[in-house]
Design brief:
The chain is of the alpha/beta class and 561 residues long. Helices cover 40% and strands 13% of the residues. It is built from 17 helices and 15 strands. The protein has an eight-stranded mixed beta sheet with strand order 3-4-5-2-6-9-14-15, sandwiched between helices. A three-stranded antiparallel beta sheet has the order 1-7-8. Strand 14, helix 14 and strand 15 form a beta-alpha-beta unit. The longest helix is centred in the middle third of the chain and has 30 residues. The chain is globular, with a radius of gyration of 26 Å.
């Protein structure tokens, strides 16, 4: 977790050795877990996303309250909406909980409490214009599919967009020229194919229909797709918007860290919010890593080395070749490496589980490591334990963010984007790692600026739709392992509506992009333990793993695609 904007100083060794855990929050309360949810595209109202998320992942999960007796004045699953003094927005609230049951291995202790926050950014992109969308849309259309600039999974949709664009242009042109055609201009083209096309009597009707649709579509496209255009495109007009969104998120993460009220932060991003979450982890770590030091023999030093070994073994099991740009960092990448050994599925699953366990251990050591900003209190060096992406367009990063797959891979290899496990460097002893020897003290380790995924577990939940049936499932989402590394856990689950109009019409799988935390129950109480939990909801609960339960982690890794 990043320190304040000014440089932080490590706590003196004597103080650091005495503080094995983050300083307790004010009043002697136990440290809590903070869950930060970043909403997706559209004109989202503040707290609209967060309330549904809390209801499904907290209030409906009866497993969190087993053995917890109700109090006279409240139930264990109750939540309270309190002023959010951390985000600084009067429109947002902090949803806080009572205590859950103790987690596995913590029996006999008091259960943990949770605070839920929403990182709301829709107001920053409220001034989207048609020009913002059109410039981005034109850049997407003007791709060369022959060179592979259009990924196979979106080629059907890309072709349909071209057909719709051509129809719009032809209908508009035919309508505009109608008076000229009636005046005899059509006679000049009567025996040509162009005359037959332009003389078709249906063009005015099509133009009227297209005009009506365009009237409504313009607002929808600027409000929804316009958000994507403003954030993923680094056009000069968009840079201020991108900076404001990121700074708002970084400020929230800093405030959570410096409050000393939390010892774990879970970051959840939906849709475009997952791209923002990716950027926040990358930027927050780059700030925190500047001041991280691991003295020789310290628990942090040992945890870093253990995580590096697990990363090395995972990459080897995944088929990455040593000294290849896909294995070790390449700050001067100019080529796109292709081809990897076919991994052994069982070995890969085992090494991924071992790597995620090493990530968990490293996160705990970082949360116990103290740094201090000048004039401020000591606080944890890093708190984010998990990045959870839901319906993430990062699966189309080669199309939406980069222009080609090769360009995307180069961005990852040069550490401009996250990789899980982190990009490794060749160490003096010939081994591979993501921490280097600090120039001022050759025995002290310092992780590099893009090593966030050494301590942050990344889980991606998606509902991949077939290319030929892109309206079924979630076209926006898809697996991320190919582009962002084998340490990432992809959970691909086909979601279905159990009831409702679409289910009645046989469209239970129709566009599921908004269903990731929808269990189709509106109660604010835990659901009966014997009631089946939708598969995608169980996967989300396992990814969040509020109680840090090893069984939930095992279920999650076993489902990875």
């Amino acid at each position: 977790m990043p320190p304040a904007p000014n440089r932080a100083e490590p706590v003196e060794p004597a103080e650091a050795s005495a503080a094995t855990h983050p300083a307790p929050p004010p009043g002697g309360l136990d440290p809590k877990t903070a869950v930060v949810v970043i909403h997706g595209i559209g004109e989202q109202r503040p707290m609209e996303t967060l309330r549904g998320f809390v209801r499904t992942t907290w209030q409906h999960d009866s497993g969190l309250f087993e053995g917890v007796d109700p109090r006279p004045d409240f139930n264990p699953w109750d939540v309270w909406s309190k002023p959010d003094h951390i985000s600084g927005s009067a429109e947002l609230r902090r949803i806080t909980t009572a205590r859950a049951r103790p987690g596995s291995g913590a029996e006999g202790t008091r259960g943990r409490r949770f605070d839920f926050f929403e990182m709301h950014w829709a107001d920053i992109t409220a001034d989207n214009t048609w020009g913002d969308f059109f410039d981005w849309f034109r850049a997407l259309l003007c791709r060369n599919p022959v060179k592979g600039d259009v990924p196979p999974r979106v080629q059907w949709l890309w072709c349909l967009l071209w057909i719709a664009t051509i129809m719009l242009v032809l209908s508009s042109a035919a309508t505009a020229w109608l008076s000229w055609l009636k005046a005899g201009g059509l006679d000049l083209l009567a025996h040509t194919w162009l005359g037959a096309v332009l003389g078709w009597n249906g063009w005015p009707v099509i133009a009227a229909v297209v005009g009506l649709l365009s009237y409504g579509a313009k607002r929808v496209l600027t409000s929804f797709a316009g958000d994507v255009a403003r954030y993923v495109s680094a056009a000069p007009r968009n840079i201020r918007v991108r900076q404001e969104v990121r700074q708002r998120g970084l400020k929230l993460l800093r405030e959570l860290t410096e409050s000393n009220a939390y010892d774990r932060v879970i970051l959840v991003g939906h849709s475009l919010g997952s791209v923002i979450a990716h950027d926040l982890v990358l930027l927050a770590w780059s700030e925190a890593a500047r001041e991280l030091r691991a003295p020789p023999g310290s628990e942090l030093h040992l945890a870093i080395r253990a995580c590096e070994r697990a990363a090395d073994e995972l990459l080897d099991a995944a088929g990455y070749a040593k000294f290849d740009p896909g294995f070790e960092r390449d700050d001067h990448a100019c080529d796109c490496p292709i081809g990897r050994r076919v991994p052994d599925a069982a070995a890969l699953r085992q090494k991924r589980a071992a790597f995620r366990l090493a990530q968990r251990d490293l996160h705990r050591e970082l949360a116990a490591t103290r740094v201090r900003a000048p004039g401020g209190p000591a606080h944890a060096a890093w708190l984010i334990s998990d990045l959870i992406t839901l319906g993430s367009p990062l699966t189309h990063a080669e199309f939406l963010i980069a222009r080609t797959l090769c360009e995307l891979r180069i961005a990852v290899h040069t550490r401009e984007m996250l990789r899980c496990p982190p990009m490794l460097e060749v160490l003096p002893d010939g081994a591979f790692g993501f921490a280097f020897q600090n120039p001022r003290d050759s025995k002290t380790l310092q992780p590099h600026f893009a090593a966030a995924m050494g301590a942050v577990r990344w889980t991606n939940i998606c509902d991949t739709s077939p290319p030929w049936a892109f309206l079924m499932g979630d076209l926006v989402s898809g697996p991320l392992t190919r582009d962002f590394g084998p340490g990432l856990v992809d959970i691909d689950i086909p979601m279905r509506r159990p009831k409702g109009i679409l289910a009645t019409l046989g469209l239970a799988r129709g566009f599921t992009h908004l269903m990731y935390w929808n269990d189709f129950s509106r109660t604010s109480r835990p659901l009966p333990p014997n009631e089946p939990v939708p598969e995608h909801i169980q996967a989300l609960r396992d990814a969040l793993n509020y109680l840090d339960d090893p069984a939930a982690e095992q279920r999650l890794v076993a489902q990875a695609v």
